[in-house]
Amino acid sequence: MNAAQKLIREHNLTWEEFAELIKMADDPQVDALLAEEAVRIRKEVYGTDVYTRGLIEFTNYCKNDCYYCGIRRSNPNAKRYRLTEEEILACCENGYELGFRTFVLQGGEDPYFNDDRMVDIVRKIRAGYPDCAITLSIGEKSYESYKRFREAGADRYLLRHETANDVHYRKLHPEEMRLEARKQCLYDLKTLGYQVGAGFMVGSPEQTAETLADDLVFLKELDPQMVGIGPFIPHHDTMFAKEPSGSVPLTLFLLSVIRIMLPHVLLPATTALGTADPLGREKGLQHGANVVMPNLSPVKNRKQYDLYDNKICTGEEAAECRGCLGRRVESVGFTLVSDRGDFRS
Ligand code: 5AD
Ligand code: FES
């Protein structure tokens, strides 16, 4: 109990204490204590509002080969697609009508969408939707590229660090990918004035309490505006096909820990959490999450953005997801709002 109480008092722990705390995750009393404090803090900072982001998965081509991911380049079974600029803008239009005021452009690291093309798309969205936030989630780029996107009108950037432990990073990614490069990108993005999102999967192969303690220490140091975490879910075409899924209770526990560590953080109840447990997102909100990210991509492409097996909402129209999520959010006493949902410092 000590580490939990100290976290509540001081909003931080040493690496040893984080590791000790994580080992207490299956104690229902500790979980309840942290969840209660996490919800109290989120209500103090954000009231009962839940922010929503319209996720546009605009390409599943990827030059990377992350071992856990269904759209890794060496998966020949992935049916590849790219949305046209017109299709992307149509998703925004549809989303705007449904009340979305943040668009998240997420894709694999697709060389077709070079800086010029991305700048063009960001400019058009910026011009068409001056009251909306634009979030990019397109992987590792140079400082100069990030600068160009920022000047074109991008406000936020999501780039999960995946694991802050070097040895663990090596188990999840091929040699050419480096944790140091990933971290540098996150710091570059912060320097450029983006609202930055880091994060990791819970229960990825070979993750331990100790590697998770590394993640928490790193998050406290980076001090991002957003943190995305969700359970690892195996994809049948990857080398991790036979690995077990990440634990939902541990994910929920970590959501509470992150909310307490970073009281103002924007913290989504992720699609992976909703996939691993039918009530995962509701439980996430009850553990300190304050964001949901429904899918705005064209229904015809949704199944193709296949990062992990059994992903939810791949058959639903955007309007259905919006309605469904509104009801889900209300079922646990929160309200889905139509707002950019910026970080409150
Ligand atoms: N299970 C859960 N999450 C995954 N991601 C990629 N593959 C999986 C998987 N098999 C997550 C990564 C990535 C984000 C877009 O999706 O953390 O950053
Ligand atoms: Fe998509 Fe419920 S959120 S159908």
From TrEMBL:
Organism (species): Eubacterium ramulus ATCC 29099
PROSITE patterns: RADICAL_SAM
Annotated residues for binding of S-adenosyl-L-methionine: 162, 182
Cofactor note: Binds 1 [4Fe-4S] cluster. The cluster is coordinated with 3 cysteines and an exchangeable S-adenosyl-L-methionine.
Radical SAM core domain mapped to chain residues: 48-270
Statement: the UniProt record of this protein carries the keyword Heme: no
Entry-linked SUPFAM superfamilies: Radical SAM enzymes (SSF102114)
One Pfam family per UniProt: Radical_SAM
Assigned keywords, A-Z: 4Fe-4S, Iron, Iron-sulfur, Metal-binding, S-adenosyl-L-methionine
Gene Ontology terms, MF aspect: 4 iron, 4 sulfur cluster binding; metal ion binding; transferase activity
Cofactor: [4Fe-4S] cluster
Gene3D superfamilies: Aldolase class I
Binding-site list for (3R)-3-methyl-D-ornithine: 137
InterPro entries for the chain: Aldolase_TIM, Elp3/MiaA/NifB-like_rSAM, FeFe-hyd_HydE_rSAM, HydE/PylB-like, rSAM, rSAM_sf
Residues annotated as binding [4Fe-4S] cluster: 62, 66, 69
Name of the protein described by the UniProt record: Iron-only hydrogenase maturation rSAM protein HydE
Alphabetized SMART domains for the sequence: Elp3 (SM00729)
